[in-house]
Specification:
Two copies of one chain form a homodimer.
Chain A: E1 23-31, H1 37-53, E2 59-64, E3 77-83, H2 86-93, H3 96-105, E4 109-118
Helix pairs in contact in A: 1-3
Chain lengths: 120, 120
């Protein structure tokens, strides 16, 4: 069993697929002004929790914006998941735990940007 | 000398700083409709080239959007650089080669989103 075949999720390991390819899934959020710090913390925790319960996610990391460039377009949170295939990414999107997360997070999200890309 | 102290840049290695912390610098572009495929390829190459000539960049990767979610807000390209400190990131932003890149890329950029975050 190689590292790519385990379900180990680490914020700092970026586990590639068996063929060495990595599909990044980059999600950025701006929260609603009406959402409390507790609401935001709940969404952060729920998102990070997906990587522990959905083995399709090979690695996961997140953090809050500290760019001095002022080009974040109001977005404050960035989450990056890594998949081994487009099928895994597609299966994740319809996974019951992900669907549940979108229902939890949705009411607190003012703006979202999502880009997925194969690391060249 | 540890891996964190080398200038080696790899799309697949995500080299942490000596204390294990990684500052991600996530840049997303939408190109102008008037920019040709050759213009876009030139900007892609110039951006990727920075990671080879600026040792402050500990790792670098990029790709083009293939998310089926249609939440990319018109953005098509994502570039992720990793720094070991906010000082390195700040020095990168004013580095002559980065400033030169912004002058090359600027005329072709319709929309940009930038977020930096410490991997938690």
């Amino acid at each position: 069993m190689t590292a790519a075949n385990t379900n180990t999720v680490s914020a700092q390991a970026n586990v590639a697929s068996a063929n060495g390819k990595m599909l990044r899934h980059v999600v950025m959020f701006k929260f609603k002004e009406t959402s409390s710090p507790q609401d935001i913390a709940m969404v952060e925790k729920a998102f990070a929790g997906l990587s522990k319960s959905i083995s399709l996610i090979k690695s996961f990391e997140w953090g809050t914006n500290n760019s001095p460039e002022n080009l974040n377009q109001g977005l404050t949170h960035c989450f990056i998941g890594t998949f081994s295939s487009e099928k895994d990414r597609d299966d994740y999107l319809v996974h019951p735990k992900h669907v549940e997360f979108t229902k939890i997070a949705g009411p607190h999200i003012d703006k979202v940007t999502v880009m997925d890309f194969w690391v060249k």
